[in-house]
């Protein structure tokens, strides 16, 4: 059982993806199947960018055991009022400056769903959002 | 096909990431939406885009892309070029539009 934690700063796009990059290195060292690494990296990157783009700050908690990798992002931010709506492809509340950079296509949450085996999102408006997903290693 | 070959044949500028000129280009992916590339590009793809900021390199690295090709005369921002050098993923440039350069690259990679 291994545990890792990362902090994410809201609004700081220059550091977006840093945790995903760290986790990719760790999983490579652990000789995890490259196909599984690819899926986890996509899911974590999108979740990380959502904290940067939409929240004030957040923390990432990663648990790795022989069967699965569990990732949990807990942020402080505006929260999501309608999670079902947010999950829809193309739905985005990103600002125009964020969109100009090529973020804010509304594909992040769908990418997380497609690249994880279990996804759970809970949120409280004006408090924050928790995104948890699990990827099984032996399939 | 190696990145150097597409640089020569498509007459591309090499802005940065020269260490990666021997990367193998498996295919191309043309998009300016970062989540689209994140979700759908494959390892070894050359990414054709007009985005010139550092996050492009974060994605190129996470997805193991072979190179980034900037269209319409766009140039990488300083921190994009710096990260391209660190990662050894070349940032290339062309004055042509995405449609044209994608077509040419597609034609080359089909042969
Ligand atoms: N961590 C978060 N905090 C607050 N809102 C979020 C968060 N993650 C996602 N959202 C909301 O869900 C929408 C859809 O997210 P996503 O599919 O990643 O698309 P995008 O980030 O491109 O807007 C966002 O535009 C935002 O309104
Ligand atoms: Mg997003």
- Assign an overall shape of chain B: globular
Q: Which regions of chain A have little confidence, pLDDT < 50, spanning 5+ residues?
A: none
Name the hetero compounds present. adenosine-5'-diphosphate, magnesium ion
Count of separate structural domains of chain B: 1
Span of the ends, CA to CA of chain A: 19 Å
* CATH class call of chain A: Alpha Beta
Radius of gyration of chain B: 12 Å
- The topology string of helices and strands of chain A comes to EHHEEHHHEE
Low-confidence stretches of chain B: none
Share of β-strand residues of chain B: 15-25%
* CATH homologous superfamily caption of chain B: HprK N-terminal domain-like
* Structural domain count of chain A: 1
What is the CATH class name of chain B? Alpha Beta
Model description:
The complex is a heterodimer of chains A (139) and B (111). Chain A is built from five helices and five strands, in the order βααββαααββ. Chain A has 139 residues and is of the alpha+beta class. Chain A is globular and about 40 Å long. Chain B has one domain (3-110): HprK N-terminal domain-like (Udp-n-acetylmuramoylalanyl-d-glutamate--2,6- Diaminopimelate Ligase, Chain: A, domain 1), CATH 3.40.1390.20. Chain B is built from five helices and five strands. Chain B has helices spanning 3-9, 34-40, 55-62, 78-87, 98-110, and strands at 13-16, 27-30, 45-49, 67-70, 91-93. In chain B, helix 2 links the parallel strand 2 (27-30) and strand 3. The model of chain B has no long low-confidence stretch (mean pLDDT 98). The A-B interface holds A 13-14, 16-17, 20-21, 24, 38, 41-42, 45-46, 49, 101-103, 105-108, 110-111, 114-115 and B 32-36, 38-39, 43, 49, 51, 53-56, 58-59, 61-63, 79. The complex binds adenosine-5'-diphosphate and magnesium ion. Adenosine-5'-diphosphate (ADP) binds at residues 46, 50-51, 53-55, 75, 77-80, 86, 91-94, 103-109, 129 of chain A.
